[in-house]
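no rush on this but wanted to send it before i forget. theres a chain ive been looking at and ive put its sequence and its fold in token form underneath. i want to understand how the tokens follow from the sequence so walk me through it. thanks a lot i owe you, the record is right below:
>
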Amino acid sequence: MVLTDAPAATDVALISDHLDQFNIDATDIEDRKPLAVLAKDPDTGEVLGGVSGRTSLGLLFVDLFHLPASLRGSGLGSRMLRMAEEEARRRGCKAAVLYTISFQAPDFYRRHGWEAFGEIPCDPPGTSRIFMTKSLA
């Protein structure tokens, strides 16, 4: 066994692929697919921020969502979240899940119909990870 804080991308992909195959064998459903909505600089094409996640077994998983401060409050984040949710619906998802940290964006998600279903304290003291869900039906 090897303990590492820098696993090779190929090693992580192998674990993911094997878990995906296990799920396919157990469910006969092969629908895992990445999903991203990217904000790009119109002049350079550089990615400025975005939403990254996946759909699988009827759920949208929002893994990462970040916009630089200069783009927040413009409505862009709301449009990006809606785009991800709409694509998940097209893919047959009935619900979505994510976690955010109490100092990040729980109020943003609540304004968009997300509800907390769990909270776990983390560092620094007074901070927590908030697990949220939203029906897409």
User: Anything to note?
Assistant: The chain has three helices and six strands. The two ends are 43 Å apart (CA to CA).
